[in-house]
From TrEMBL, chains A, B:
Secretion signal span: none
Upper lineage: Bacteria, Bacillati, Bacillota, Bacilli, Bacillales
Pfam family, one: Peptidase_M24
Top-level division of the source organism's lineage: Bacteria
Protein name per UniProt: Peptidase M24
Domain Peptidase M24, residue spans: 187-388
Residue ranges annotated for the Creatinase N-terminal domain, each copy included: 15-180
InterPro entries, sorted: Creatin/AminoP/Spt16_N, Creatinase/aminopeptidase-like, Creatinase_N, Pept_M24, Peptidase_M24B
Length: 404, 404
């Protein structure tokens, strides 16, 4: 049975985007990174090569339709993803023959065929982008461009046709817009966190003497894939290797008495999950108990601070001071948390140099890890959304030193 | 048991790189994309965010050691991957405590600890890059920069310190160096092709009435992951959906009489595999036989043309003319193959506008697909290496219309 296409919904906050564009006197923003394209369209369109250019245009006017600039060979992907909320501008040759009248078809083929019939091909990506802006009535107006994933020569070519010959770099502006999550995005981030924790619980269940770190990492990655997600950083470190912050290779077979640190990252529909816990196989030593409790106190302190109007840097200072006071006097960190969304590190970190204030709708991963080479590492990482009077957890697992 | 680290070997052709740098009067190249970094180091170092900057420096002098510029938090990854063939220049704060003397450790922790003790931290990525060039004795000399994955403001800052205030864009130069594969790279590409075909054969074995396209796609992705690879584009299209060139969503349950088209892509240690075949469940119709034979003749024609000195565009023209002559008079294509390597589309395509000549050591995917909406699609895609007097297959599967 051929399933109908479900149309993607996008997380974009058009009102906030319009306000921030107006404040910078920009008539539109051009997204070039998959994350910002996803923010506008509700679906990622990944290029298969660095030279392939894919853009999405977000007009300041909240009711104006976004536009997508893609190579012709991506029309079929647009049709399969059911992207119908944006106007399409295509470039480069791609040949597909045939007709579908009276022949076997599916909804995506119908849409693909109609797109092939009705879409004008432009000479190149910049010509297609300029046609989109002209159609939007924005030709000659100031435009910001997400500068991170556009070929520099094409950016220069495009900027040449703008007022003053310049396009304002807009990657940071996109991140600023994305700081405050829409209810749709909070729900997506909740799903990512819940999936991540469900699989993390499976890993805890699998821990036993003789199990290789690699088995746990592979279980995680395959489980994420089966759930329709994309696994990313998979820190699974046992024994002395629990002290390694990032883990990308797996060397150790778990032994009784090992502490195992998890810091697990995935993407689901583009939205990141990033959670972590620490487990001991057998009895925890007094050293483990002591250091875990210190870390956990710092994490609690960070959460106690979280509410609208509080500076990110103040959350940081309070959490670090608490860990130092509770038993790790030499404790140092570069941050005790970060915003999460379409990027693993969205804008705002709970760090000494970030003096911006928290606002309702920000989604943060709060983490106060400790890494001691020659001894072990500890992690508690949870995801929260800042609410009007505090915060709400998107994560559910117990916040304890797990025992197996 | 803790396994020792195996040191990565890189595919870089230092002699060819030196010649092409000399021809452009460049003292060094700076890689910024994961592909070009992998080319230099033999290992990918992926940034977790667009703002995170990772570079590798390849000096023109073939005996000079490459350098890596990374945030401090990537030192542990360098240690786990066993990257010891490059000098390290780090930036930004990252805190790990402890000592390992007389304590439980592993080879990667030993290396990580020694790196933490012996690596100077620089203020930022450009300061680290400048320190690397100064240490190489290349300060003030002309340098090319892979312009595709460096933050534009940082590129401008770096270029300001170069002769004439400019860095030559070097993404294309890296691709030109990578056109001719080293024996190490050919072996890696053979492994990717062999793995891809082994899993493709499993998909053919799984084909039966009632099997969903999605099951085949998921089997492919999980099998690639289990083999240590990364699955990418997974075109599995049955019945009318076999005519869709790129497939990213799966809608159809296979029925008797369906033709199923595979075009499957993976990465293994950074090197791409991209192969394809077509299968019929039950008896092929005369229309299927006719069109498959036309496509297969074009593919044979392309291969007959492949040898050093032949223009890529001449291979294209001959293949398309042959398909037209053998039974699809309206046949059109934008290319009949592409170079493959650390990018899915490396430099050189068998296309009407690419008049460069083939050279020994080029690795090409040769494909002459046909897509007819309302009818079906056909694919044969193989990987070859150009040799002194022709070519050698890296792929092994039969080149037939498979029957199930």
């Amino acid at each position: 049975m051929d399933k109908p296409i479900s149309m993607p919904v996008s997380g974009v906050n058009r009102t906030r985007a319009a306000e921030l564009m107006a404040a910078s006197s920009l008539a539109a923003l051009v997204a070039t990174t998959p994350e910002n394209i996803n923010y506008i369209l509700g679906s990622q369109l990944r290029a298969s090569n660095w030279t392939m250019q894919i853009y999405a245009v977000l007009p300041q006017e909240p009711d104006a339709r976004p536009c997508v600039i893609i190579p012709t060979n991506r029309l079929g992907v647009i049709a399969q993803m059911g992207i119908t909320g944006a106007d399409l501008y295509v470039y480069s040759d791609f040949f597909v023959e045939g007709s579908i009248e009276g022949k076997p078809s599916t909804p995506d083929i119908d849409l693909f065929y109609s797109l092939l019939q009705n879409t004008t091909t432009h000479a190149g990506p910049i010509e297609a982008l300029e046609a989109a802006l002209e159609q939007l009535g924005l030709k000659g107006q100031a435009v910001g461009v997400d500068e991170m994933r556009i070929a520099p020569d094409l950016l220069a070519k495009f900027a040449g046709g703008l007022p003053g010959g310049q396009a304002m770099p807009a990657y940071k502006l996109f991140r600023q817009i994305r700081q405050i999550k829409t209810p749709f995005e909070i729900e997506r981030l909740r799903q990512s966190a819940v999936l991540n924790e469900a699989i993390e619980q499976q890993l805890i269940d699998l821990i036993a003497a003789g199990v290789h770190e690699k088995e746990l990492a592979e279980h995680y990655r395959l489980a994420v894939m089966r759930a329709g997600g994309t696994p990313a950083m998979t820190a699974v470190g046992a024994g002395p290797r629990s002290a390694l912050p990032l883990i990308e290779n797996y060397f150790r077979v778990i032994e009784p008495g090992d502490q195992i640190r998890f810091d697990l990252c995935l993407q689901l529909d583009g939205y990141w999950g990033d959670t972590g816990r620490t487990v001991v196989l057998g009895e925890a030593t007094p050293w483990m108990e002591h250091h875990f409790q210190a870390v956990r106190s710092g994490w609690e302190q960070a959460l106690e601070m979280v509410r609208p109007g509080v500076k990110a840097s103040d959350v940081f200072q309070a959490a670090v001071a608490r860990v130092q006071k509770e038993g790790i006097p030499h404790y140092r960190r570069q941050h005790v948390g970060h915003a999460i969304g379409l990027e693993l590190y969205d804008d705002i970190t709970l760090s000494p140099g970030d003096h911006r204030v928290l606002e309702p709708g920000m989604v943060l991963c709060v983490e106060v890890p400790y890494y001691e080479l020659g001894a072990g590492g500890f992690q508690i990482e949870d995801t929260i959304v800042v609410t009007a009077d505090g915060y709400e957890f998107l994560t559910q697992m117990e916040r304890k030193l797990f025992r197996k």
